[in-house]
Amino acid sequence: MKKFIKWSVILGGVFLLGACGSGATTGTSSSQKSEGKLAAIKKAGVLKVGTSADFPPFEFHTMVDGKDTIVGADVDMVNAIAEELGVKVQWSDTEFDPMLASLQQGNLDMGVSGISATEERKQNMLFTDNYYAPKQNVVVKKDNLDKYTNIASLAGKKVGAQKGSIQEGIVKDQFTDSQLVSVGKIPSLVVEVKQGSIDALVLEDKIAESYVAQNADLALADIEVTSSDDESYAIALPKGSEDLQAELNKILAKLTEEDKIDEFVEKNTALANEQAK
Ligand code: ARG
């Protein structure tokens, strides 16, 4: 009897192992399914990319040969990726917040929009390795530069941030005595600062510099905003795109190694600033 129990325990163990084995097989088939993602994109010949093209020098509109075109450092990066994959790019330009939602629903292959790879977003989407580390800046009217010299000076004032962006969280966490104003598109926020309906606007370094270069009545305030580790930009992917993620990381490593990203940022900063003249 004792022997029987022993054997049944052992057999049970084997059965459990077998169950684990089949669990592992399920794992393989799901990764096979995600291997299908890259193959599917190559087969379609099109990479569907979501962005919010209000973000110079990373993505913005300009006239190219008389045609309204989305350009920028992110666009150059995506073009390099598409070339590597042998596919065309199909851009979808919306507000930032709905773009992230659309990506999570799997309507886009990827989101490239200066997207910060935060821990919170990692719950709902995949990210590649980071490709750019920004800092935070505060944009104010030039006339108010002497007035707004630190976070405390903005107490009781309205501080803008793009809807769905990490800047909303920064205003809530750090500008605790100010009132957050969330708006979908950055140019609308810029107009509000110019008109004085909001007092300040939190943007990342290059973007703040671009808007200031394009608007002589705006300036970068001398206000220190604390940055956190997870503000760096990465490409966002819907969950289940692990194979695409791996391929993109290889391409990004190569582009970074060749200093291409810096080159794209520099080139497009000049292009965005030129537009203002
Ligand atoms: N990096 C910030 C974030 O991920 C802002 C990104 C906004 N991007 C844009 N293209 N408007 O929340």
UniProtKB/TrEMBL annotation:
InterPro entries per UniProt: Solute-binding_3/MltF_N
Alphabetized UniProt keyword annotations: Signal
Q: Which domain of life is it from?
A: Bacteria
Q: Which residues form the signal peptide?
A: 1-24
Tell me the ranges covered by the Solute-binding protein family 3/N-terminal domain, including all copies: 46-272
Q: Which PANTHER family match?
A: ARGININE-BINDING EXTRACELLULAR PROTEIN ARTP, MEMBRANE-BOUND LYTIC MUREIN TRANSGLYCOSYLASE F
- State the name under which the record lists this protein: Solute-binding protein family 3/N-terminal domain-containing protein
